[in-house]
User: Fold these one by one.
Assistant:
Number 1:
Amino acid sequence: MMNTILKTVNKLLVSVLLVAAVLLPSAAFAGETISVFKSPTCGCCEKWVEHLKQNGFAVDVHNVQDTSVYREKLGMPMKYGSCHTASINGYTIEGHVPAREIKRLLKEKPKATGLAVPAMVAGSPGMEGPRSDPYQVLLVKTDGNASVYQNYNGK
């Protein structure tokens, strides 16, 4: 009898842990909405939005004809430009920045404009495919200069 009870409790505990594992990524950033400004026809932008959602972010998508308008409005220098621009908690996110680095930015709260992955790098979130190139996530400072925030080696 006791063995049956323990098995039932174990199954219940495993079920609770599995539900928590699914819900915690969403709960970790509940209330953190990222606004994304992208072209209505850009497939890689859609994939990046899905990457954000899979990593617990609420995403408010704005399909726009010219993302450079929003890049300029949000203070991201054009030299760091990519195919989409986003905004979260006063930071600008430019290009295919991994969700992991956005979460790190929100946790560390550095004095900066935001993060950027200039251009459209093969292998970055939303740009997955047979090739994966090395790239850098840049921390763009308020003076327009940048430093390396994280290196990604590619494959």
Number 2:
Amino acid sequence: MHPTPLSRLTQLATRLTVVLVLAAATVAVASPAQAAGPYERGPDPTNTILTASRGPFATATASVSSLVSGFGGGTVYYPTDTSQGTFGAVAISPGYTARWSSLSWLGPRIASHGFVVIGIETDSVYDQPDSRGRQLLAALDYLVNDSSATVRNRIDRDRLAVAGHSMGGGGTLEAASSRPALQAAVPIAPWNLDKSWSEVRVPTLIVGGESDSIAPVSSHSEPFYSSISQAEKAYLELNNASHFFPQTTNTPLARQMVAWLKRFVDDDTRYDQFICPGPTRGGDTEEYRSTCPMS
């Protein structure tokens, strides 16, 4: 018996359905490889890479004169690689009475993961958080507009972040408040008389020390974190850490800071695994909270 025209149509429709299902399955399998973001830099992240003393990129440095406008000069650290496109940039402020040398280990550590970093000197070591916030933004403006071509040409001016210690951490919140276009902020053992940051829209990682007696987490880091309501946020409290934990090499800080910058400055979802669910309590970690961003 020969098939009727209707049965032929039914067979064709069945075959077409099978082809479409197989095509969809092929796309679904291939999609993870195709989903790589345009700003991903470096190899797939591992805990070993994040805890190493240097990341995968070689770096160089450049000095910034104290005669620049808006801040007190400093040091720039940048990847020497020119094959992977531009990089995000981060400005970092030291704390009250401190100079950049107190945090200088962070410069090459972060830059070696694919960022241009400027560690600033403040106009005065006694500058308050609001002034430090303005100086952080001035340093970013310097990087994208007035730094040497070698540095400037490596920077994506739309992917900028701020960080700082103590009053520099308070200044980080000030900068994030006044410039919501920033991609990330990392206040470290932050100190600020203002306890409410509900206006902040910048993804913010706050890192506090459990034994901090200068900026106790109960009156600084924790209320700062709780007050942020319009942005992705995380809070890492380091076990038994004093106010001065960032002034010597601190791998838990560096690990989480790099992961946060990679996730939000580079939009690199490969780093979600280090933020959500994030560090578990024990060892160096006293507590970790997060809004748990997911790709």
Number 3:
Amino acid sequence: MSGIPALHSHFLERIRDAVAADVRFSALLAGGSYVHGGFDAYSDLDVVIVVDDAHYDEAMASRMAFARSLGDLLGAFTGEHVGEPRLLICLYGPPLLHVDLKFVTATDLDRRVERPAILYARDRAAVEARLDAAHIHWPERSSQWFEDRAWIWLHYAAAKWGRGELFDALGMLAFFRDQVLGPMLHRRASRPQRGVRRAEALGMDDDGRLSATVASHDTASVRGAILAAAALYLDLRADAVPERITPRMPQVLIDYIDGSGRR
């Protein structure tokens, strides 16, 4: 498989051979950076294994054994934490390689967040037709979704800062960048809302306003980062103003941080 690092290419070939040799499986698809671009030596492998309906329960029960058969499996766990129990998240090596194995049925292909590449299929024409007819939609968040959450999350960060729980405040700021600021910056550039993925390579922080929300473990630094996050959010919100604006923000947040709103 050309165009990707040898380590990844060889492992994909190994998965393809294993899928082709297993009568339970009908196709192997690849997503993520493989289809979005930017694939490099640090990329994960995101693959989807299509399982025949009659064998699905068995395949799910034995998927850890299948993962072990692919190579030197160091560890693996299922993806309930991201709402995806069909996913098996694996680490192989050395050399270290992160591989996501998702086991689905053919009907699961009818709704996708991306158009995957077909690496193998027993009936390629049937899989192509199914993907051609699929509803493919990236889960974009609305302006109102951001507005309903932004000020509550920023207040949480401010409350932890006020109490001196700086690690907790730093964690919330990182969460806020990933859930709010990053997606809104991607929206501004008319790209799919993908958190802060490839922020540097895509020039999402050319003006330094996103990096201003990254604080050190210092009271003054965290305070400044919270205010910077609020200011950047307001700027990005202007791109698509939500129908319901949270009243008295950001002033009441600023008052809270300055002490007039804190108990």
